[in-house]
Amino acid sequence: MTKNKHRQQFPALANKAYFNYGGQGPLPEPALEAIYGAYKRVQVGGPFSGEIGAWVVQEAMLTRRAIASELGVPPETIALTEDVTVGCNIALWGIDWHPGDHLLLSDCEHPGIVASVMELQRRFNIEVSVCPLAATLNEGDAVAVIANYLQPNTRLLVISHILWNTGQVLPLTEIVKVCHQGYEPPLAPPCQGGEQVLNEPPLTPPWQGGGQVLNEPPLTPPWQGGGQEDLSVENHKVRVLVDAAQSVGVLPLNLIDSGVDFYAFTGHKWWCGPEGLGGLYVSADALADLHPVFIGWRGIVTDANAKPIGLKPGAQRYEIATSAYPLYAGLRSAIALQDEWGTVEERYAEICRLSKYLWEGLSELSHVECLRTSAPEAGLVSFRLTNGMPHKKLVDLLEKQGIMVRTILNPDCVRACVHYFTTEAEIDKLVGEIAIQLG
């Protein structure tokens, strides 16, 4: 399928130059039609009926299969969620935290995830450290930085596969390997490098003034025989949670080979699916250590008297209850449409080619400095203005010309995203309009 013909299936691309795929992708017409058709079928069949109940189960199964195929994992390892943040919170809150446990995250994580970690720290009195990965954008070794910040009591590393602010692609397999091999004392003190350590006292979110920690023994669910096995320094591995907001739909993925424990993603960004549908991959090894955060009928097993007797055997245990099921058909349609254009490897190669083309164009402009000193490895291209113009002003001026980009606050910059179906003409229009606005 030619690129022009492919683009005709995206109504949102008809009247603008769109560069905000990292925020939300445009929904293609076939996905819209699939959603409409699914809602219609629910009403015709009866929203609460045996027929539609069986259809919902089938739709969920087909959707897990479609996602699993893209991620290189078995379908039973996929939990359907609303978005990336929900998936991350399932992993963050499902771990059996104890006072003094250590969580490590990077200095490039999304504020929503940082806020969740802050609340974990306040509630469970865990230690939190922030390792400086932003400084490795153009030089340095991200794996070595992470390794130097691991501690004997580290339970979880939280990182993004592609950093949402700078577009840096992290070497996930190597990072997971370091974390799973166990802690080794760093060669240099972790205080060297300008890290932020959030452990004494616990960081209190600005919307809270404190709070008590309830230490009473919890009730044991009937499907659990007691607490988890104590994880000593000698026998535990550091689990890895990945915010995959910017990597799913971009990178060729095989999560089994990567060894990653938790991988939270969404369908509404680079897959160009409907907002409100995403997922969480939980490895078979990590499943036993992760308790459900919320529990509902979709994640449990009941007996003949509707008494809960257990959790679903796979990642479905983390699903809760009623969802917007017609979105499932929309996401599958969006994924299938991308596969019609080319393989994930072909799409990724085109993304990299176009992002390099944009990066080269921006690099030639006066008063523009790209954050990367070499061509990007994915579709996110971040740059700053050096003439004093506020980045928000440039974004607003570009939108008036039908060009959609966005600001990033940390680091202070403008971010433009290219997809495999972005055109050189769109990129030329963006670069040309920036040149005009900067005089």
Task: Summarize the SSE layout with pairings.
Elements: H1 3-7, E1 17-18, H2 29-45, H3 50-71, E2 78-81, H4 84-94, E3 102-106, H5 111-124, E4 127-131, H6 142-149, E5 154-160, H7 172-180, E6 196-198, E7 239-243, H8 255-258, E8 262-266, E9 278-282, H9 284-287, E10 300-302, E11 308-311, H10 326-341, H11 344-363, E12 368-370, E13 380-385, H12 391-400, E14 403-404, E15 406-409, E16 412-417, H13 424-437
Parallel strand pairs: 1-14, 3-4, 3-5, 5-7, 7-8
Antiparallel strand pairs: 2-9, 4-6, 8-9, 10-11, 12-13, 13-16, 15-16
Q: What would you note in describing this structure?
A:
With 439 residues, the protein is an alpha/beta fold. The protein has 13 helices and 16 strands. The strands form four sheets. An eight-stranded mixed β-sheet has the order 2-9-8-7-5-3-4-6, with helices on both faces. A four-stranded antiparallel β-sheet has the order 12-13-16-15. A two-stranded parallel sheet has the order 1-14. Helix 2 (29-45) runs antiparallel to helix 10, helix 3 runs parallel beside helix 10 (326-341) and helix 6 (142-149) packs parallel to helix 7. It is globular and about 75 Å long. Mean pLDDT is 91; it is low at 188-220 and 225-235.
